[in-house]
Amino acid sequence: MKTLFDNCNVPFVKELSRGSFLSCINYDPNFNTLIPQDFSLALIQSNKAEGIVIRPLNLDSKKFGHVMLKIKSEDFEERLRRKPKLGDFSSLSMSIQPDLFLNFINKNRLESVISKEGSLGRENEDRFLRLLVEDALKDIKECSDIGKKYLSMSKSNKEKVHHLLFAEGKKVIQKYIEDDLVNL
Predict the structure, then answer these.
(1) CA 76, CA 53: separation in Å to the nearest integer?
(2) What is the pLDDT along the chain (184 residues), one digit of tens a residue?
(3) How far apart are CA 83 and CA 14, in angstroms?
(4) Alpha-carbon distance 122 to 170, whole Å?
């Protein structure tokens, strides 16, 4: 593929590394992007890479489909591994902790939604809250560890999870708007 792109003068992002799966999975995704220097663009200080993509070279795509693994840098992570302070959710009868769902609602995900949808302000806060929760739910459903449990939940428990996500999303959006106003 590289030869084809080179021969046709098609710009492309070069691979960072090639090696065993273990060496690739251990590649540190927290680095400044190399794209500006590869394309002779002006360098921007602290221009972080979003992460890395690992693609297997010797995998039967007809059998397994298009396989790739994305590892995002900490600055772009849309699922945080944290333990938020929670109220009493003992009525949420399920075999999974509510904080696992709340990990999907954070500033990075909100900024990702904003980059797709436009500016966030007090006038469109509700729209962005809905979009933020929809984006989180999409990832929750696709997540192998939590998705299966979410999809098998009762309607009542799903409604409780939605309530949690909306409440956490509202906090994230309000803090984002407040921080934005302070930084004007």
Answers:
(1) 14
(2) 678 888 898 888 888 888 887 788 788 888 888 888 888 888 888 888 888 888 777 766 667 666 777 888 877 777 665 544 444 444 444 455 777 888 899 999 999 999 999 999 889 999 999 999 999 999 999 887 788 888 888 898 899 899 999 999 999 999 999 887 666 5
(3) 38
(4) 11
Query: Looking only at Cα atoms, what is the longest distance across the chain?
Result: 63
Q: Which two tokens stand for residue 81?
A: 């591994």
Of how many residues is the chain composed? 184
Q: Where are the domains of the chain?
A: 2-74, 98-182
Of the candidates 136, 144, 138, 146, the one whose C-alpha atom is nearest the C-alpha of residue 167 is 136
Query: What number of other Cβ atoms are within 10 A of residue 106's Cβ?
Result: 21
DSSP 3-state of 78: coil
Amino acid present at 79: R
